[in-house]
Write a structure and sequence with these properties.
By secondary structure, the protein is mainly β. It is about 15% helix and about 40% strand. The strands form two sheets. It has a twelve-stranded antiparallel β-barrel. A two-stranded antiparallel ribbon has the order 5-6. The N terminus is likely disordered.
Length: about 400
C-alpha cells in the first residue's frame, strides 16, 4: 500500500512539471523569434521569483500497523507411550526333599549325614524278648553338576560305621565291639569271634537327571544311574564288621532308599521317575524308582544272581517364610523278587518264629529346612529331620533316625 501511493504522487509531480516547462518554452519561443538582421534569438533566463512553486507534494501517510493476529498456542503432540516391559514374576520356591531326588537340576555339594538308633531282640527262640540298642552313622556326600537347565550329573558315595547290639556275653552292656575269644571244650582249642562293629566304604553311584516343565507349575524328572561295586565289607566271614555296617545297618539307616549303594557284591542299574507340583509356596513331589541288582563278585556268600527292588516316596513342603520351609516325606521300599534272606524270614511265620519283615519298609521324615542366601548368588539350605520306622525291619527294630542334610547350591 505504501509503495503504490508513492509512485502515484511522483507521477503527478512529474506530469505537472513537464507541462510547466513546455509552457515556459513556448512562451520564450514566441517572444524570442530571430530578428531581421539574422541574429539568433536569445533564450531569456527566468528569475527565481518568476518560477512558479511546484505543486504541493503529498507525503504518503504510513499505513496503520496491522493488528497482530493472535496465534493459538499449539501444545506438542504427546509422544507415543513406550512399551512397558513387565518383568516375569519370580519362580516359585522349591522345597528340596530330604531323602528323595531333587527334580530341579542344580550344581550342588550335598553333605548328607544320618544317625540311627535302633534295638534288636537278641533272645533265643522261645525266650522273652531281650532288646539291645545299636547305633549306625552314615555319611553320604553327593556332587551334582548342572550341564544344562534341564540336565544334571550326579556322583554319590559314602562311609558308614555301625555299632550293633550286644549279641555275645551274658553281662548287661557287654561290649560287642571287641573280638571274643573262647575255648572249645572238646578240642580245648581257642576260638576267636570277630567283632560285628565296623566301618565300611560304599559303592559309587554315577547317574544323571533330566527335568522338563509341564506348564507353569508342574515338572517331570527322569533319572538313570549305575553303581560301581568298589565297597569294602564283601565277606561276612573275613570282614564281619564292615559287612554288617553296609547291610543291613547302612541300608536301614537310609530308610532302604539307597540300598544299592550298600550292596558290596552287586552291580546295579537304577531307573527313576519324578513328578512335582511347585506353586504358591507349596511343593508336592512323588517318586518311583526301580533297582536291578546283578551279582558281580563273592558268589559263595552271595546266593542271589539277580534281585529286583522298588522304592517310592512322597514329599510335601511348604514355605512359611522366605527363609524357612517345613516338610514331610513318606518313604516306602519293597523287594519285587525273592531274595533268599527274604524268603527265609517269611518262612519263620510258619515255624512260629519272629518275622523281621525283610520284604518291605515304611518310614516317615519330618522337619524344617532353612534357606540362607550366600554371597555370589549361592544358597545354603540345611535341614534337620526326624525319621521313625513305621513298618518292616524299621519297625521291628524300633528305628529312630536323625538326618542332618547340608546342601550348598552354586
Amino acid at each position: 500500500m505504501r509503495t503504490g501511493l508513492g509512485h502515484c504522487s511522483l507521477r503527478r509531480v512529474l506530469s505537472v512539471s513537464l507541462l510547466v516547462c513546455c509552457w515556459d518554452v513556448g512562451s520564450v519561443l514566441a517572444q524570442g523569434e530571430p530578428s531581421a538582421q539574422g541574429e539568433p534569438f536569445a533564450i531569456p533566463v527566468p528569475r527565481a521569483s518568476e518560477i512558479p512553486p511546484p505543486p504541493p507534494y503529498i507525503l504518503p501517510q504510513p499505513a496503520a500497523p496491522m493488528a497482530a493476529v493472535p496465534v493459538a498456542s499449539v501444545s506438542p503432540a504427546p509422544a507415543p507411550a513406550a512399551d512397558v516391559v513387565v518383568p516375569p514374576p519370580p519362580a516359585a520356591p522349591y522345597s528340596l526333599p530330604f531323602g528323595l531326588r531333587p527334580i530341579i537340576p542344580v550344581t550342588v555339594l550335598r553333605l548328607d549325614t544320618v544317625f540311627s538308633f535302633y534295638q534288636q531282640n537278641i533272645a533265643p527262640s522261645g525266650q522273652p524278648e531281650r532288646m539291645e540298642p545299636g547305633f549306625t552313622g552314615t555319611f553320604l556326600p553327593t556332587i551334582g553338576y548342572r550341564f544344562h537347565p534341564s540336565w544334571m550329573g550326579i556322583v554319590r558315595f559314602g562311609v558308614v560305621g555301625n555299632r550293633p547290639p550286644r549279641i555275645t556275653g551274658d553281662e548287661v552292656g557287654a561290649d560287642n565291639c571287641e573280638d571274643q575269644t573262647s575255648v572249645d571244650p572238646t578240642t580245648m582249642q581257642s576260638k576267636t569271634t570277630l567283632t560285628k562293629c565296623g566301618v565300611a566304604s560304599t559303592n559309587v553311584l554315577v547317574g544323571g537327571l533330566y527335568s522338563a516343565k509341564l506348564g507353569s507349575s508342574v515338572r517331570l524328572g527322569l533319572f538313570a544311574s549305575m553303581t560301581i561295586p568298589i565297597a569294602s565289607g564283601t565277606s561276612a566271614t573275613s570282614e564281619p564288621g564292615a559287612s554288617a555296617a553296609l547291610a543291613p545297618a547302612g541300608q536301614l539307616s537310609r530308610s532302604a532308599l539307597d540300598n544299592v549303594i550298600f550292596a558290596a557284591n552287586d552291580w546295579a542299574l537304577v531307573e527313576g521317575l519324578d513328578i512335582a507340583y511347585i506353586a504358591h509356596r507349596l511343593t508336592v513331589q512323588a517318586e518311583v524308582t526301580l533297582f536291578e541288582l546283578f551279582r558281580a563278585r563273592n558268589e559263595l556268600l552271595n546266593p542271589d544272581v539277580f534281585k529286583l527292588n522298588f522304592t517310592a516316596g512322597l514329599h510335601v513342603g511348604y514355605f512359611v517364610a522366605r527363609f524357612l520351609s517345613l516338610g514331610a516325606e513318606l518313604r516306602y521300599q519293597r523287594w519285587l523278587s525273592d531274595p533268599k534272606s527274604v524268603v527265609a524270614d517269611e518262612a519263620n511265620a510258619d515255624k512260629g518264629l519272629p518275622v523281621q519283615g525283610l520284604r518291605h519298609n515304611l518310614s516317615l521324615a519330618v522337619g524344617p529346612r532353612v534357606h540362607i542366601k550366600l554371597p555370589g548368588g549361592h544358597w545354603l539350605r540345611p535341614a534337620l529331620t526326624y525319621v521313625p520306622g513305621l513298618a518292616g525291619v524299621l519297625a521291628t527294630r524300633h528305628y529312630h533316625t536323625v538326618q542332618l542334610d547340608i546342601p550348598i547350591v552354586f
